[in-house]
Amino acid sequence: MPPESTYVEPHTKKNIISRSELDARCKAGEILIVVNQKVYKLDKWIKHHPGGQLAIRHCIGRDCTDEVKALHPDYVLEKKIKYFEIADFLPRESDPEFAPILNSLPRTKEEIFEAQSVQVSAAYRQLEARLRAEHLFETNYTNYAWEFSRYLTLFTMAIVLNLYGTCTMHYMASALCLAMFWHQISFFAHDAGHNSITHNLQMDNGIGIFLADFLGGLSIGWWKKSHYVHHIVTNHPIHDPDIQHLPFFAVTTRIFRGFFSSYHQKEMVFDRIAQFFVSYQHYLYYPVMMFGRFNLYVQSMLFLINEENYPYRKQEVFGLAIYWIWYPYFLKQLPTWNMILAYVLVSHMFTFMLHVQITLSHFGMSTEELGDTESFAAKMLRTTMDVDCPTWLDWFHGGLQFQAIHHLFPRMPRHNLRSAQPFVRQFCDEVGLTYHIHGFAKGNHIVYSALKDVADQVGFFLEVAKHEANEFVEAQRIVRPDTKKDQ
To answer: Sorted alphabetically, which PANTHER family does this protein's record hold (predicted)?
Structure first.
């Protein structure tokens, strides 16, 4: 595996940058972020960032200490990021020029909210230190060994039933085993993508490429680019790709008027096709999810075609090539074309449960925009729901039913998320935040209701839009009367 990048920006002499200077320099086009009261200049590094450029661009001009710590290995903060340090940061409230003015004025709602966010961030960092002391960021390799044995069993059963099957039941059972295999290894690949297995970037990348590309036909690099943005701007209608699913779904009525997606870099239009699908999205939710894997194939290929700076591009292209050799060969062993078609549909469509599990934690949650001053922890808990289930069922959900806890601590191994739950509950009680957790059935009902609420407003929106269009035409007629009539 190649290194993340061959580029290192020279360490420059430090000075002090105030809030106002930081704002001015960012407006002028510099890529500056604040981490642990230090200012870092990432203009040249941004194109080499393994998590994609957008993950950095969403942090420009603000304190993103919690985001950086949550998503990066310790060595990034301890060693690598120091190459980009250019100054100490002077917050506005610490600036001698502004402190007397701020102290003499009554506090606005925004200032109160910002002060509360600072307190939540401090408590969140204490929580993170406490969980480290409990060794919950350490990997239990025995757990992964059991998981690997489950994957191997499912894959072996898929092969045996395919090669030695004698009837439709055998072949369909093979397809189901392969679907469950893909479903389960996605959780393992997810951990590798977050560098939470070996905590060694090269090794975890290798694991992720083997599981996602060679065995699943999906790009782990594409997943990282999308998923890291999702973790930073969770449930933001304009920025989070995980809730931008037009023409099929709209999780907020804000999407009705269209918007420019910062992730997809294009206008998302609420056209007639989208109007139709969104009107029935609560009914179409599960059927559409059955075809989700086919879309992931397309996204993976587009990523590897377009991302020239991605350092693991060659390895992933090779991995996908191997996948598209072994899977068609696997299908070729089936007796008829009808059986091949049925096998493809069953093996792919029954992975819908993974897509449901992923969207379940976000589709029914808040999509409000509370600004850059909202603390990372508060945002994650506001936009994410946990799914309650008995311990013996953790294997089915992959441990990622604890999405809220995962969003707070993305690099914590999945098998430790349940152990972190009591600490997170206590944290929420202490800082006054709501910990959203529901059973699987209740969670599905919440998502169904949220989708139905948006669907029910499509007709009303179209009526309003029609009325506004008529008013505009009438206004134009008054301002610019028919010249032929005047003559």
So the answer is: DELTA 8-(E)-SPHINGOLIPID DESATURASE, FATTY ACID DESATURASE 2
Task: Check residue 11 and report its DSSP letter.
Answer: P
pLDDT digits (tens, 9 = 90+) for 349-408: 999 999 999 899 999 999 998 888 899 999 999 999 999 999 999 999 999 999 999 999
Question: How many angstroms separate the CA atoms of 173 and 69, rounded?
Answer: 44
- Which are the contacts of 216, defined by CB distance < 8 A and separation ≥ 6? 182, 185, 186, 189, 323
Rg of the chain over all Cα atoms, to the nearest angstrom: 25
Q: Is there a contact between 33 and 42 (Cβ–Cβ < 8 Å)?
A: yes
Containing 145, the helix (H) or strand (E) segment is helix 141-164
Q: What is the pLDDT of residues 297-354, one digit of tens each?
A: 999 999 999 988 788 999 999 999 999 999 999 999 999 999 999 999 999 999 999 9
Specify the pLDDT at position 487: 46
Q: Is the peptide bond before 247 cis (omega within 30 degrees of 0)?
A: yes
By CB atoms closer than 10 A (0-12, 13-18, 19+), residue 149 is exposed
Say if residues 250 and 454 touch (Cβ distance below 8 Å): yes
Long-range residue pairs from 320-325, CB within 8 A, at least 24 positions apart, any chain: 320/213, 320/217, 320/219, 322/213, 322/214, 323/213, 323/214, 323/215, 323/216, 323/217, 324/217
Among 67, 5, 4, CA closest to 36: 67
Sheet containing 32-35: give its strands across: 15-18, 85-90, 38-41, 32-35
Adjacent-strand bridge partners of 280: none
